[in-house]
Amino acid sequence: MSAASASGDPSAKHTKRRPRFVGWRFVLCALAAAVILAALVRAFLFDVFYIPSDSMQPLLEPGDRILVSRTAYDTEQIQRGDVVVFDGRGSLAPLHSGRPAVADAAVTVGRWLGLAGSDTVYVKRVLGVAGDHVSCCSDGDPRITVNGTPVDESYVYPGDTPSDSAFDVVVPDGRLWLLGDHRSVSADSRSLLGAPGGGLISTERVIGRAERILWPLERGTSIDRLSLGAEWNTEK
After folding, report:
1. Domain residue limits at 14
2. Where are the alpha helices (DSSP H) in the chain?
């Protein structure tokens, strides 16, 4: 037995424990790097959103997690038929939640982890882009028309009518007309008729395009881009 061991030299014990401490430090640094990388990816490339409601059935079910491309519209235009995620503050949601800051932080963490939805972020389908004349339910015709042409909406929730309220709008530059697929329960552009902005959502509020259902695994599938009259000429 060495003199250092026999005397209970604390420096010897410290030397023995150092590798374990270094190992934990490495693990913590690796975890921190992974979190930072994930945050950067989700902030600039792709994000994951939790679906809290049934407003986009049958395409999206409550509890689904969807992958959203934040760069989808960096090189192309938003098209009719796209399913987009957008910040609804100032339109479908109040600018301020009214909750304490701690509660807001908890909601943000839950949304980031994919465990909860957001009360300011929405997912809807684009029915009208800049220059489009979108209307419904006039002259006894129950269909939605874009620039005078009826839209084939076989994707709408079975049994729903195209809209339970009439509307007739022309979409200005920088705005979108958005509807949920489950029309009878969806709060969308129709909910803001008569309000400032008239239900037209700013393109600057669009976070990205929904690309795929990630969870549950048995529902995992890509979210197709529907071509809703991409060939139609817009009215001037």
Report:
1. 8-38
2. 3-6, 10-44, 101-112
Indicate which residues carry an active-site annotation: 55, 124
C-alpha of 201 from chain center: 14
Q: Distance of alpha carbon 136 from its chain centroid, rounded?
A: 26
- Cβ atoms of 173 and 77 within 8 Å: the answer is no
CB 135 within 8 A of CB 127: no
- Round to whole Å and give the CA distance between 111 and 185: 22
Q: How far is CA 36 from CA 29, 31, 41, 149, in A?
A: 11, 9, 9, 48
Whole-model pTM: value is 0.76
Contact call for residues 78 and 69 (beta carbons, < 8 A): no
Same domain for 64 and 148, yes or no, is: yes
Any domain includes 2: no
Do 120 and 64 lie in one domain? The reply is yes
CATH of residue 97: 2.10.109.10
Q: Cβ(222)–Cβ(76) under 8 Å? A: no
CB 122 within 8 A of CB 86: yes
| pLDDT tens digits for range 116-157 | 557 789 999 999 999 999 999 877 778 999 999 999 999 999
Residues 111 and 217 in one domain: yes
**Residue at token pair 């679906």:** 51
Tell whether 129 and 191 lie within a shared domain. Answer: yes
Q: Which residues pair with 66 in a beta bridge?
A: 49, 213
Q: For the segment 194-228, what is each residue's pLDDT rounded down to a tens digit? A: 787 888 999 999 999 999 999 999 999 999 988 77
Asked if residue 2 lies in contact with residue 9, where contact means CB atoms within 8 angstroms, the answer is no
Nearest by Cα to 86 from 197, 181, 177, 216: 177
